[in-house]
Amino acid sequence: ESAGPVQRAKITQTIIDTYNEFGITSDSDTWNKPAPTINDIIDRYLENNNSTDTVYSYFNSIKNFGVFSSKPEDCVSIFEWLDRVRVIDLTEINSDAVKSVVVSLILDVLNKEMLLLGPSEIDEDGHRQLRAMIVADEAHQFMQKDFNAVEQIFRQGRAFGVGMILATQNISDFKTKNNDYTTYMASWLLHQQTPITKQELVGVFGATDKNIQYYMDYLNNAKQFESISKIGVDNISPMLDYPYFKLIKEDKRFITKYKLDDLDK
Fold first, then answer.
1. What pLDDT does residue 62 have?
2. Of 122, 125, 146, 153, which residue has the fewest beta carbons closer than 10 angstroms?
3. Is the CA virtual torsion 68, 72, 75, 77 positive or negative?
4. 74-90: average pLDDT
């Protein structure tokens, strides 16, 4: 978000020049050639620009942290990469600005590939194919950046089989200067939060809900694993969460895979 028009033009030209260097041009006959990696583009940008450039600093950090692969043969589309559970751990990156760049790139690629794939299939029972589920902890860290891709995935993701689960500390985190993400959310799981306000709950349940005071009292006094579930418009109820430490001891899928003695350890 810090790049100005001149810097964006430099990045665009660097991408074009790098692709041309790999023999890929506007001629569609060249599009089957191996494409450069993002590291190739970063290297070219660093070679042709100086260290006083803000983008230079971001790119240099991304290169030093080894965020992306330099081997073209390891690169796949993001939906191919999401064929299983993937965890992206950004805690080792000590720069919030670099974290923002990495998250922005991933979400932007996800959004563009989502649109290219087109709407996901719907079976005869009306259930839509789920292609990917994005789970973000401390989600306020990127929502506050107002990335365009986040809004697009919120608005259109369901039709393309892409869902998002966002975890954060406060309901107010879902509202930024430019966006109110609560308007895109149909399902909520609310845990104890002190203090919680009527205004925040109205944003979740609507101004016509007569139980706002009950929700506020419940959440202000909720114990561990107690929550309120809201699925869709009218399916609202108190809930006792099923914690993971119980799940792995009682669910047969875990019991058959691991020895109970090992789980106790």
1. 85
2. 125
3. positive
4. 85
Question: Which of the four pLDDT bands, split at 50, 70 and 90, describes residue 229?
Answer: very high
Let me know how long the chain is.
265
Going by their DSSP bridges, the two strands 162-166 and 132-136 should be labelled as parallel
Q: State how far the Cα of 114 lies from the Cα of 8, in Å rounded to an integer.
A: 24
- SS3 per-residue string spanning 164-216: EEECCCCHHHHECCCCEHHHHCCEEEECCCCCCCHHHHHHHHCCCCCCHHHHH
Phi, psi dihedral angles at 223 (to 5 degrees)? -90, 175
- Tell me how crowded residue 255 is: count the other CB atoms within 10 A of its CB: 13
Separation CA 188–CA 78 (nearest Å) = 27
Coil, helix or strand at residue 86:
coil
Look at phi and psi of residue 120 and say left if phi exceeds 0, alpha if psi is from -120 to 50, else beta: beta
Backbone angles phi, psi at 187, to 5 degrees: -125, 140
**What is the rounded CA–CA span in Å between residue 110 and residue 147?**
13
Using 50, 70 and 90 to split pLDDT, how confident is the model at 113? Answer: very high
Q: In what order do the strands lie in the sheet with 187-190?
A: 187-190, 226-231, 235-240
